[in-house]
Amino acid sequence: MPLNFSSINNVIDGLRARTFEFFSRGKAWRRRIALFLAVVGPGIITSNVDNDAGGIATYTQAGSAYGYTLLWSLVPMTIALYVTEEMCARMGVITGKGLSDLIREEFGFRPTFFVMITGFLVDLFNVVAEFAGVAASMELFGISRYFAVPVAAVLVWFLVLKGTYRQVEIIFLILCVFYSSYLFSALLSKPDWILAARMTVVPTIHLDVSYLLILTALVGTTIAPWQFFYLQASFVEKKVGQRQYPQARLDVLVGSISCMIIVFFIIVCTAATLHRAGMTNITDAVDAAKALIPLAGKWAGFTFAFGLLNASLFAATILPLSTAHVICEGMGFEAGIDHKFREAPAFYWLYTILILVGAGIVLIPHVPLWKIFIYSQVGNGVWLPIVVIFILLLVNRKDLMGEHTNTFTFNVLAWTIAIAMIILALALSVQGIIQAIHPPVS
Amino acid sequence: MLYATELMGSAAYDGQDNFVGRVREFFIEPAEQPNRVSHFLISRGRFQPLVARYDQVSKVAPGRIDLNVSERALDAYQPNESWLAVRKDLLDQQIIDTEGRKVVRVNDVDLAEHRTNGNIELRIAQVDVGLPGAMRRLFQGLAPSKLMRSLQTKLPQRAILWEFVNLIEPDPLRRVKLRITHEKLEDLHPADLAEMMEQLSAAERQGIIASLDEETAAAVLAELDERLTTQIVEKLDPEKAADIIEEMAPDAAADLLADLPKETSEEVLDEMPNQEAKEVRELLAYDPSTAGGMMNTEFVYVSEQSTREEVLEWMRNQELNLEQLDTIVVLDKDARYCGTVPVARMLLAAPEQRMSEMKTEPLVSVTPDASEKDVFELFDKYNLRMLTVIDDLHHPIGTVTVDDVVSRLVNA
Lengths: 442, 412
Fold this sequence. Notes:
The complex is a heterodimer of chains A (442) and B (412).
Chain A: H1 5-24, H2 28-37, H3 42-50, H4 53-66, H5 74-95, H6 99-107, H7 109-140, H8 145-162, H9 165-178, H10 181-188, H11 193-201, H12 209-222, H13 226-237, H14 245-275, H15 285-296, H16 298-331, H17 345-363, H18 369-395, H19 398-401, H20 408-437
Chain B: E1 2-3, H1 4-7, E2 11-13, E3 19-28, E4 37-44, E5 47-53, E6 57-61, E7 64-67, E8 75-76, E9 84-85, H2 86-90, E10 94-97, E11 102-105, E12 108-116, E13 119-128, H3 131-139, H4 145-152, E14 159-161, E15 165-166, H5 172-177, H6 183-186, H7 190-197, H8 202-211, H9 214-223, H10 226-235, H11 238-246, H12 250-259, H13 262-271, H14 274-284, H15 291-294, E16 301-303, H16 308-316, E17 327-331, E18 337-342, H17 343-348, E19 365-366, H18 372-382, E20 386-390, E21 396-401, H19 402-411
Parallel strand pairs in B: 2-7, 16-17, 19-20
Antiparallel strand pairs in B: 1-12, 2-3, 3-4, 3-9, 4-5, 5-8, 6-7, 10-11, 10-15, 12-13, 13-14, 17-18, 20-21
Helix pairs in contact in B: 7-9, 9-11, 11-13, 12-14
């Protein structure tokens, strides 16, 4: 069986089924866990893929520049992530349709086309950023990018198009486990856990410009617009019914929290080492990994770089596929790997172009990769407000959602988060544009 | 050919050449005629919108529609549930292409002009699901019509003739008013229909199952992803669910009911005829991952003493599912299981040959508590097509067929 959009979820299903078997044999508390495992997946995957190369760069920057002082922002960010993702999960479960389908049916062709074309460009930059992450982390291990990136691209392309169920299952399992490498980097860097814990619950706000910018970037990279499409489509694809909605919601919650735990470890790790050593100008995850070696030992640096490689590869596998899928769905083209190339040319071309161009740009000598990171952030920033407004309009439609529209309180919370996110995202893109025009001296 | 996209927003002029308003929607009245545009909605800014009937229209061209009556002769617009709206109900919505057996999304609607006693009727010829329609939707009003018309000939066409279009309407009342039947869907293979239904929304799936005849509905439910099957059956009322489940083979019915919450499955079973309900209840008692949970209790069994001719004669008078029939269970005089006879061997045997002479060697069977894995291994080892399940007294109580095994292996 080749891997496709739905078989990504099938893989998770497979892994889950085994766990399910184990838990369902036991006592009452075990059975409750088993019930949850029946729908688990989309929320956790989405959030994990969210901590991609661009994200890790930002978290590194935050930790090295401001130490533990930005940790408090993780709590409101978890809430924002949960609230926005929950709406998509709910729409997926109740309507049984993907976000791009709903936008097309309720807002017509032109808005859909606009959302899709923006999405394609933004995701293309994101894919470039993922391959840049592969290039950078492999170079730290002494492997040239001209070898590592083509190999990664071919691997991803083949894995998705030709991989068998079992191969993919094993690879995904390994990738998921490797997210924990940041836990080891954090442990090896011997942080002040008590201080970190205190800084997480007690907000400290500095009012200087670069502090606010980093804060904005944290939000901007954590809540990426493409994830809403992926999340909702996954719940539809998994055929989660209304009865299992509470478990789906729990999945989103666990996903949001686990995503933030990884962010927590990255910030703690860089705060305890780079920031304490006065290296506050680290802007890139690989520089951070290099700097970690003398400070916290070889293994701290290696696990850090390895985490980046893992995150980049994971995102590079899922992002092109889900983008091609979502665009084809919205535009009404045939989509899915179970179709032959001739039956679904748009789908295969989109998928191939995303990987080819994504990996290709990284291989151009002297290409300024930091610019690409900025462009992908700017792109996310422009795209996010549009997508979030569509989500809020759709989720409140009685004819679509019936009694499952947002409650008044939830709406107040959701709109507040949306407006805050929109302001932050726009600020981030403006900052990105300024930076692109006047590059920092480096 | 005219296109709905090109005509939307056209200016409407009355018989005296006075501007009336702009055309915003086309309606079809399926109860009258299934493909004719029966009403044009003309909006007039802050004034109440009007509707022009098909016989009040004398000329239609992109950008301009001429009426043959004065503005005063037009009716005020009243929303009507039995009218199918081209923009709202068709454009951007999913439909089923019954010829291509696919769910597709409508980009544009192509209209043909028919001249009848001095006026022009528009009839839906086909729906556009390809690039030309997409291009028109994107550039309408931004690029000149002429340019688009010359460009679209260079694009690959993908359109579905109106007669092959099956609309999907979840609301049952509106479905009746719009005369949407699913007869065309009933002619499709259940597996194709099930695959298409997986692409629709929950409400739409529910609507289709509710309007299919019970036999087709049962066949589709058996093919559908089991998670969807449970969701659908849960939402049906127990009586309708029972009617559909009755049509299913007992093992399929038991598998389905096992996934439902206890109360729901009890409600459904109560609505079923006693005999069927009893069979299904018995099957439900077995663990789904054992031979008992896999087996079907409907199978053909005859005495080993009977001749080929007697068996054939008897079978002709039974209602059997012939497509699934390829092995016959043979019993001894105490009704104990003593072998199986493949139908192919009977085909070639002499009329008076006895069943006992045609049995397959060796004698293979399992008890209902044998694990799924043991069953798979037996099928593999003896290249079986069917395996008999026997109770403690060696009486056959059901059979596991090769397609049960295949579907379990695929879903494993």
